[in-house]
Amino acid sequence: MRAKDIKQAVSDHTHEITSNLSKLVRIISIEDPLSASEGQPFGKGCNEALEFILDLAKGMGLRTFNNDGYGGFAEWGDGDAVVCAFTHLDVVPEGTGWRYPPFGGVVSDGRVYGRGTVDNKGPAITCLYALKVLKELGLESKSRMRIYFGCCEENSMKDLPKYLDRFGSPDLGFVPDSQFPLAYCERGVFFLRAYADAIASDQNIRLVSFEGGKARNMVPDYAYARLEAKNAIIIDRIISKFESYISTSNAKITIRQSGLVIELMSFGVTAHANMPEEGINAVTQLAKLLDVFDLNDRCGEIIRFIAQNIGDEINGGSLGIDLASETSSLTFNLSTLSIKGGIFEAVTNIRFPAEFTPEYIYEISQAAFKRLDIDLSIIDMLPAVLLDKESDYVQLLYKIYREITGRSESMKVAGATYAKYIENVVPFGAIFPGTIDYCHQVDESVSIQELILCCEIYSHALYRLSQLAGEKNQLESNS
């Protein structure tokens, strides 16, 4: 195999890759339980995206399989061993403030814009075309090469057990849902539910409702609160305090008054919960504003706790969970919050270093919230991953990246990918060092030039991993 053959073949498909990614982005594949049905467990949008990419693969002459709507794959090559790239087609909600329509798939200035271009429809398309290129070049494979397309990665990865139960783990593989050159470690992830009674009993001002956040793995970019006052004097005093705070803090919050009712709208900046420092949390921003006026009831206690013990912090420092290790540091994100009908409920997203146990993280988190009699329970927990940097397949992928790009950055620590649950699989790209990571952010977009470079890298990765897996399989058969 000559590297320049793959490079040219990939380049020849630039228009197709761009066009088909644009079409895939136009499919709103957010998990939708209301439209779920048999064969469409995650809703119509996710199923439409799956059918689109499987039909595209069939047109390339690849073998395809639809796993009851949970996900599917495209495959080429022969042999007992399997090499697989694990991608996903579902996306997070779009958020607000986009320059281009979030599901428009607009191509402009050498980029494709839209939700999923980075996470993870762009990598799914590039991996599919990598397989197409290998087939077109007629390169002899020692293993079956497969691209998996999941439909529920963003919410508990509920699609993956269905695949693993049926097909098991591949011999080798990668997940293009992280950063280059590759990630040898993934932090553990806790999704925790905070719950408490929140009776609004203040005689002067009542917090009627508070709502913010849409997804458990995003920094919330919008929050809303409604207050009702006893009289006009209190209304004037509250608004005066709020306006003074907003003017000095530069918080993006608007105030709307109607009679004895105040409505507050908080605008933040969305980001992936794995990197909360990239966003502005609209929920905690609004809590800090509400804390300016001392609500004298249970709602006030909870708001005060959030404002003073979480606030702008992203490391859980005031909660006592600011932990760090050789591989990484803990991050804390308040993803959603609701106060209505006398009930407070919130979801937090904690990412912790691989060297700490889940039991320890949960114990100290629980103790922090117990200070205010807030119950904390586990919604979901994703295990940490720590790979052997010196293993042959990790080193092979690292070598491929260096050969194709001429760059030699060090290995990374990733967030949460399918690699948490699959043996012999490495987070490998698709975000290049120095490139802005638009994952889960407004104006998510990808450079067409980088799309094509990814496709070239993944063509080499699939082919050379298939050779390695086939040779290992042969040795085991002969032993």
3D structure, described in words:
By secondary structure, the chain is of the alpha+beta class. The protein folds into two domains: 3-187 and 385-478, Zn peptidases (Aminopeptidase); 189-377, Alpha-Beta Plaits (2-Layer Sandwich), CATH 3.30.70.360. It has eleven helices and 22 strands. A hairpin with a 2-residue loop joins strand 15 (331-340) and strand 16 (343-352). The longest helix has 31 residues, at 448-478. The relative contact order is 0.18. The model has no long low-confidence stretch (mean pLDDT 94).
Task: Describe what is shown at a glance.
This protein has two domains: 3-187 and 385-478, Zn peptidases (Aminopeptidase); 189-377, Alpha-Beta Plaits, CATH 3.30.70.360. The protein is built from eleven helices and 22 strands. The protein has helices at 3-12, 14-25, 44-59, 121-137, 160-167, 232-249, 282-290, 298-309, 358-370, 392-405, 448-478, and strands at 63-66, 71-76, 82-88, 107-108, 111-113, 144-150, 172-175, 178-179, 183-186, 188-197, 205-212, 222-229, 253-258, 261-267, 331-340, 343-352, 375-382, 385-386, 412-414, 425-427, 430-431, 445-447.
